[in-house]
Amino acid sequence: xxxxxKRKILALLDEHRIMSIATLRPDGWPQVTTVGYAHxxxxxxxxxxxxxxxxxxxxxxxxxxxxxxxxxxQVMEITGLSMAARAEAVTDPAEGEKxxxxxxxxxxxQMGLSLSMPTPAEVRxxxxxxxxxxxxxxxxxxxxxxxVSC
Length: 150
Description:
Elements: H1 3-15, E1 18-24, E2 30-36, E3 38-40, E4 43-49, H2 53-60, E5 63-69, E6 79-89, H3 93-106, E7 123-137, E8 145-149
Antiparallel strand pairs: 1-2, 1-5, 3-4, 4-7, 5-6, 6-7, 7-8
């Protein structure tokens, strides 16, 4: 992967805290939901409920598609990422604690409040490993994308 493109991907991951992620329902239809995420390099982490439809979908099929982007008032300023990836449940307690710590760092506004993050035992934690990343950057031309295989 080109270093400049990798820096662009990491910058986009740093700029945002939520993503839309699609999993596959039992009937084959995609289900898209919005989740908060954290990342460690190109590896992403997100949480969901133990008995959520998303967790059930991923137990059957670990393939996901996701997008990370934001709204802009100028069409030619649109930037974002889309990924084809694999999402695996985190079972190692140390990695689970790391994922929750990374997520808390993304939301420093929550630090002083009485709200606490769930423990790894109270949620499903998923590690998302990209297979392909598409970097969208309209500044390079209308609908311009750079595709990266991981």
